[in-house]
Amino acid sequence: MERVEQTGHGFTIEFEERWDDQGQRWYCREMIRADVAGGSIVELSIFCTGDWDEARQREHAGAVQLIRP
Fold first, then answer.
1. Which end of the chain, N or C, is surrounded by fewer C-beta atoms within 10 Å?
2. How far apart, in Å, are the Cα atoms of 41 and each of 1, 36, 47, 54, 69?
3. Does residue 69 belong to any structural domain of this protein?
4. Is 68 a member of any domain?
5. How far apart are CA 41 and CA 43, in angstroms?
6. How far, in Å, CA of 45 to CA of 31, rounded?
7. What total of structural domains would you count in the chain?
8. What pTM was computed for the model?
9. 28: number of Cβ within 10 Å
10. Which domain holds residue 31?
11. What does the pLDDT look like over 19-44, one tens digit per residue?
12. Read out DSSP for the chain?
């Protein structure tokens, strides 16, 4: 999943990552918020769920129903 949106002060980028490591399929979801002034990024924040192993992904799927997967 990828999503880019313009905001009143800049833009946001939302994306997810999946990879194999230690015999498991891992997952994380991230969002970047950029504030823009004068054509330059003046502030940047990155938010991340953290790295979820398969057990954490199953726990989340059993507890939460996402509006948009």
1. C
2. 24, 4, 17, 36, 30
3. no
4. no
5. 6
6. 8
7. 1
8. 0.75
9. 14
10. 2-63
11. 999 999 999 999 999 999 999 999 99
12. -EEEEE-SSEEEEEEEEEEEETTEEEEEEEEEEEEEETTEEEEEEEEE---B-HHHHHHHHHH---S--
